[in-house]
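Quick entry between incubations.
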Amino acid sequence: MPTFADTPGDATSGDATSGDDAPLRADAAPSIADLDTLIAGCRACPRLVAWREEVARTKRASFRRDVYWGRAVPGFGPADARILVVGLAPAAHGANRTGRMFTGDRSGDFLFEALHAVGLASQPHAVAVDDGLALTGVRITSPVHCAPPANKPTPVERRTCAPFLSREMELLAPTLRVAVVLGGFGWQALMASLHDTGWEVPRPRPRFGHGVRVDLTHPDGRTLSVLGCFHVSQQNTFTGRLTQDMLRGVMRDAITIADL
Ligand code: SF4
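Done. Structure below.
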């Protein structure tokens, strides 16, 4: 990933007309691969499209020789995952640069170190789409697929992007057993998505917390466990609020529940 025909760095060449309504076409995506392609061409949020492309043009000095992806970043991982990790949004100089979730920044370094330690990732680091990293049994996504200024999507942007998360959950449904949610933003977005897709989410909605577990059922008989985990941002990992032991503990719980 990305495996799209479009070339990274050609961020402004997309078809704005077809990309503007991409979230409305998420329900019709027949596969995870089709959904990923739809997401990568999305231009539905004017503020985020402008920001991701400006970042891709101006770059950070240390990455000035890199060709930035500068587009929406789809999920990463197998289409038969039993665990879904839900973050917040791509980082401006991380996934917005490399085109793959949590790839190319310190948050990703922290996450993939833990995933590798518990056997879900083939290597402990992620630097580029061609670095050989493969995930087993786990897929990583976010409720907002474009890098937002100050890492803060607006409520309207979250709602606009929501159909992608709902469709991704539906396409993963045959195998999905656990969602690990990194932080409160992702937690609220996922709970809303689960409610919208028929899951029996309690009222009032369960509150986010590190170590919180919520077991949900669907009228069709499916079950899903949602686990809360502090986000892997440097604000948490540099301060010790989230340690490797804490993150690995949540991932090990997910593996046990998912029977991986
Ligand atoms: S945030 Fe989501 S809906 Fe908005 S432009 Fe990016 S992919 Fe499209």
